[in-house]
From TrEMBL:
<dbReference type="GO" id="GO:0030897">
    <property type="term" value="C:HOPS complex"/>
</dbReference>
<keyword id="KW-0472">Membrane</keyword>
<feature type="domain" description="Vps16 C-terminal">
    <location>
        <begin position="517"/>
        <end position="835"/>
    </location>
</feature>
<dbReference type="GO" id="GO:0005765">
    <property type="term" value="C:lysosomal membrane"/>
</dbReference>
<feature type="coiled-coil region">
    <location>
        <begin position="349"/>
        <end position="376"/>
    </location>
</feature>
<dbReference type="GO" id="GO:0055037">
    <property type="term" value="C:recycling endosome"/>
</dbReference>
<dbReference type="Pfam" id="PF04840">
    <property type="entry name" value="Vps16_C"/>
</dbReference>
<comment type="subunit">
    <text>Core component of at least two putative endosomal tethering complexes, the homotypic fusion and vacuole protein sorting (HOPS) complex and the class C core vacuole/endosome tethering (CORVET) complex. Their common core is composed of the class C Vps proteins VPS11, VPS16, VPS18 and VPS33A, which in HOPS further associates with VPS39 and VPS41 and in CORVET with VPS8 and TGFBRAP1. Interacts with RAB5C. Interacts with STX17, MON1B. Associates with adapter protein complex 3 (AP-3) and clathrin:AP-3 complexes.</text>
</comment>
<keyword id="KW-0653">Protein transport</keyword>
<dbReference type="GO" id="GO:0033263">
    <property type="term" value="C:CORVET complex"/>
</dbReference>
<dbReference type="InterPro" id="IPR016534">
    <property type="entry name" value="VPS16"/>
</dbReference>
<dbReference type="GO" id="GO:0042144">
    <property type="term" value="P:vacuole fusion, non-autophagic"/>
</dbReference>
<dbReference type="GO" id="GO:0097352">
    <property type="term" value="P:autophagosome maturation"/>
</dbReference>
<comment type="function">
    <text>Plays a role in vesicle-mediated protein trafficking to lysosomal compartments including the endocytic membrane transport and autophagic pathways. Believed to act as a core component of the putative HOPS and CORVET endosomal tethering complexes.</text>
</comment>
<dbReference type="Pfam" id="PF04841">
    <property type="entry name" value="Vps16_N"/>
</dbReference>
<dbReference type="InterPro" id="IPR006926">
    <property type="entry name" value="Vps16_N"/>
</dbReference>
<dbReference type="GO" id="GO:0005769">
    <property type="term" value="C:early endosome"/>
</dbReference>
Amino acid sequence: MDCYTANWNPLGDSAFYRKYELYSMDWDLKEELKDCLVAAAPYGGPIALLRNCWRKEKAASMRPVLEIYSASGMPLASLLWKSGPVVALGWSAEEELLCVQEDGAVLVYGLHGDFRRHFSMGNEVLQNRVLDARIFHTEFGSGVAILTGAYRFTLSANVGDLKLRRMPEVPGLQSAPSCWTTLCHDRVTHILLAVGPDLYLLDHATCSTVTPAGLAPGVSSFLQMAVSFTYRYLALFTDTGYIWMGTASLKEKLCEFNCNIRAPPKQMVWCSRPRSKEKAVVVAWERRLMVVGNAPESIQFVLDEDSYLVPELDGVRIFSRSTHEFLHEVPVASEEIFKIASMAPGALLLEAQKEYEKESQKADEYLREIQELGQLVQAVQQCIEAAGHEHQPDMQKSLLRAASFGKCFLDRFPPDSFVRMCQDLRVLNAIRDYHIGIPLTYSQYKQLTIQVLLDRLVLRRLYPLAIQICEYLRLPEVQGVSRILAHWACYKVQQKDVSDEDVARAINQKLGDTPGVSYSDIAARAYGCGRTELAIKLLEYEPRSGEQVPLLLKMKRSKLALSKAIESGDTDLVFTVLLHLKNELNRGDFFMTLRNQPMALSLYRQFCKHQELDTLKDLYNQDDNHQELGSFHIRASYASEERIEGRVASLQTAADAFYKAKNEFAAKATEDQMRLLRLQRRLEDELGGHFLDLSLHDTVTTLILGGHNKRAEQLARDFRIPDKRLWWLKLAALANLEDWEELEKFSKSKKSPIGYLPFVEICMKQHNKYEAKKYASRVSPEQKVKALLLVGDVAQAADVAIEHRNETELSLVLSHCTGATDGATADKIQRARAQAQKK
């Protein structure tokens, strides 16, 4: 344990800081770090280097090279810089490299050097050029702040949703500020700058002077300033050699430290962790590194070569040409266990486990001591927590073995925290590997979340590792393996040296029917890369036609889209394609396409019936479909023609079409309708009233109701209305008029072709029993019983039924008998039935 704490350095009485090596850097740098623009992403992110040839007195003849490395120094990308002079580099939260040029243009590159997009910081920046720039991170995303040659600030708080904001002017500012930084407070981004002994705070509307609380007198200039990772604290380095530390609002002072060095530092960053005991600031000069806090003494390290500081959530990464180290405050659990002469429960449990492995009785003594104090649960928890903060796997295992040993003596210790820590450490150790190069700490990992970590592995194209992690942690397929395979497939389609067939086959073999994977999204990426044929092949594997069709339309493969839509059976999808085709093709080609797709043609006809009648007519004409064309003209004659002449003309066209279709029945019926229309017009002219558009039967009925019986009979002869139908029409019309005398004359005019039962029924319908009885006596014998029952003569109906000896008629009469009034009749029927059965 004593050796283990050899690299611990006390800062005051309450905290220790330690620095350990993450990687031995193997990168082959062609330039010194001091001659390059450097940007390193937080959370163990990549490092970008660009030789800063534009700041030299004489520009170099060779173009600089933009190089991107992992945190372990593994090369990720290298590209020749062919654009303008660069002022600053920085990484976005999505690990995109932002390159701010002197003309205000910001070029965005991917992790592998692929150009993504660019945007401008505005015309004012273009005219006045960029003096300095900062890339910062807020809750909205990643932002860019620019200092122009006119000593004005312009910023955007989120480059993903670019909204430029010009900050207020600083009164009397004639030269660049000695230092400046961005502050984020209450969802608003501020600029803090130093001009001589004064500090100015700029927000979107005002410029105000601020004074740090408790600042030592005699300050004539601020040389450097640093804001903490969470924007809660601020540090100021003055020309007197003092470092002021306090809250970002400058209203509260934490401490002030005299470092006795007046030279401006190269870098100054905060080094603290969540729930830190002793917040500290790390200051770097050419060959010296100093850690200062609220303590009379500082921690100092010698730098053997040019180094660069990267502030992190819980510490500071320090890399140079040869090494990459991590400086942080020793966590409480680790301090409790490993500090010299510690009697903490975790320290005793670790010793007990070590003695147990040696088969020493001291293990029992240590364990009893912990149990007597009732601190065994705390000891296990301390060991688990400390294991998470250790970088070396051997020490992690030692602490976890101790925790496992202690758990054996607890009855109900929940295993979740132990199991989860084992899983997290296995993941962390995998990504910390030199070939992966993501040196996340446990605190950073928890802050970042597993989903973001998987995204970053995918971004680095480390698909196998990402899938192994998903399977190990048993993440849902949609969130884990499926999503990663989809990203892999999107990357695969960009490999233009492989044939479309091979790529499509490889993707299908790997993905199969994996849930949550959309082949249409992969096909869209292939189309975006200019590989249309590959996109079509991939869409063949997409089971959802609703996803296939929109992309096929976008790729201008409309006929294939129509076939897919028809196969799906989704009429809405077919209509979508048809309307797209109609706008894309000329009329002739569109109709020819429809002729090859009967279902689509049928659906389009349905659409035209409601929306485009003229198009429907053209379709029938092109197909020589005379039957449907005739039907079309019939509907059109009534829908659009108001004049009788126009209607007759349309009907004549329909009749001609029916003759061409060899449908003589429809043609004759249409001609009859034309004759009827002409006759109805003549009747209106001669008799008045309304006849037009009535049916033939209604026309006859109207004539009878009007007393024009001869006209009605003539119309019946002209249109060959059968006698039975004419008698029915006349019977109903006279009954409605209640012209009983005329009805009686009509019944006696000749023998009724429909019999006389309808006369009885019509009279009873009009509630005229007297007239009904006149016709009941004339009803044929087989209908006599029914007629007598209609007029209510149950007794006579019974006599007739008994006479006919018809069981059906007897049952019918019996059903009409009521208890009191028809009792004798019912008995009579029953006796007749009994006699019939005896015989």
